[in-house]
């Protein structure tokens, strides 16, 4: 049992980076809750599909325009981000202290949580047709899934 092993540096960097990134996302979302709620409202309200002089889009029947629901949805996203960040920090600590072999369960759990967060954002965003105006966000969510898969392979 070693405290720090150079051969595990790739996993240490992976978990430190993902934990930091997810923690920062949760912190930023908490800090700018009103703005984030408006942003989620823009997506859930499908405002980008409401173009003047354009025929009604059949998907806009899914639009949710309730500010209360927008706040609840954004709050749920933040809670998931916090939970995933906690899993990632825990996996990092275990990889540093025990190495990948003894921390496999925590590592897979954390990466599965991270992948779940990405799928949550991807599927919910797709439900509200965010891909029509937010291609970069959709690509980011796909990359998050690929990073999680690569991490699982590295373990």
List the helices and strands and how they pair.
Layout (H helix, E strand, L loop, with lengths): L8 H23 L1 H12 L22 H36 L1 H24 L7 H20 L1
Helix pairs in contact: 1-3, 2-3, 3-4, 4-5
Kindly describe this structure.
This protein has helices at about 10-30, 35-45, 65-100, 105-125, 135-155. It is mostly helical. The two termini are about 15 Å apart. The model has no long low-confidence stretch (mean pLDDT about 95).
Short key terms for the protein model shown above:
about 160 residues; mainly alpha; single chain; elongated
Short description:
The protein is built from five helices and no strands. By secondary structure, the protein is an all-alpha fold.
Radius of gyration: 18 Å
N-to-C CA distance = 17 Å
Tell me, what's the shape?
elongated
Number of helices: 5
Oligomer classification = single chain
Largest sheet, strands/sense/barrel: none
N-to-C SSE string, H for helix and E for strand: HHHHH
Number of strands: 0
Helix-strand category: mainly alpha
On the 0 to 100 scale, the average pLDDT is: 93
- What are the segments in which pLDDT stays under 50 over at least 5 consecutive residues? none
